Amino acid sequence: MRKNREFIEGAFYHVTSRTNDKIRVFENNLGRKIMLITLQDAKDKYRFRLANFCVMPTHIHLLIQPCEGVSLNKIMQWIKTRSARRWNLVHGSIDHLWGERYFARAVKDVHEFDFIMHYIDQNPVTAGLALNPEEWKASGAYCKVQNITGLIDIDPFDSRCQIQLLPLIPFTVSRLIPPAQLERLVKYFGAYADAVYRLNALVPTIPRLGETAGMQKPPASLHYTIGTADYFIYEYDDNDTMYGKVRSSVYPAETVHQQFSLSSLKNNPYLQLDLGWTAGK
């Protein structure tokens, strides 16, 4: 006999459900569209919050929080039944669309929540279906970047969320990130959260202006790029003035140390801060 599931009131769940015999039911746009419509209808019928989702060719991922008094079993049974009926109606078949049971695991804490958000986002990339998570249209990552409302109703700065997520990006960190990159960062949560924290920890270790004279090697620095040039910032005054070197691919032999204006750098639409860059380079 199968063991009955135990559910925790108010918890988020990572839910996975596979198609029957792992048939690639959602391989094409029509199949994924059927699933997206079904998810939207489920939200209209049942009270639950959807933090993230991804429709893959052979399975779906949901990060879901049923509201008080709402059964996750009923939600999932309805989603699987309704999507199967729609699929069979469109294709004139009577096939079994889904495997027997779905997998559900309660999210224990914020770290696990963060990990699952990122894991779901990365599914299409890992499977080779997209270069970036937000390019996969049947996903929460796409909805967040495109500001599509209705399915995803939680974001990393939602103060109503029962799980404590990321705080607002620290002011100093937000000033260092170019506007377009910062906008994308706020919209697309999963891929950059850890990098923001690393950057927040890195900034205080960057020497203040004038402190590197006599240092053999600065303890930390920032790396900006515009595609044809790299900026290595060794000193920063916490305001607008920076000092470091610029290395240009156009003139690779010339590496010039100079002073930079942060606001002037950020005016370049191609400027990007390498959030994965670490101290000691």
**Residue-averaged pLDDT, rounded?**
83
Summarize the main sheet.
5 strands, antiparallel
CATH architecture of the largest domain: 2-Layer Sandwich
What share of the residues lie within helices? 25-40%
Find the CATH superfamily of the largest domain.
Transposase IS200-like
Uncertain runs are 156-167
Count of all domains? 2
**Inertia-based shape:** elongated
Strand order within the widest beta sheet: 8-7-6-5-9
Give the terminus-to-terminus CA distance: 58 Å
Structure description:
It is built from eight helices and nine strands. It has 281 residues and is of the alpha+beta class. It has two domains: 133 residues, 2-Layer Sandwich (Alpha-Beta Plaits); 113 residues, no CATH class. Strands 8-7-6-5-9 form a five-stranded antiparallel beta sheet. It is elongated and about 75 Å long. The N and C termini lie far apart (58 Å).
In short:
The protein has helices at residues 29-45, 72-91, 110-126, 140-145, 171-176, 179-187, 193-202, 262-266; strands spanning 13-18, 48-55, 59-66, 103-106, 222-225, 229-236, 241-248, 255-261, 272-273. By secondary structure, the protein is α+β, with helices and mostly antiparallel strands. It has a five-stranded antiparallel β-sheet.
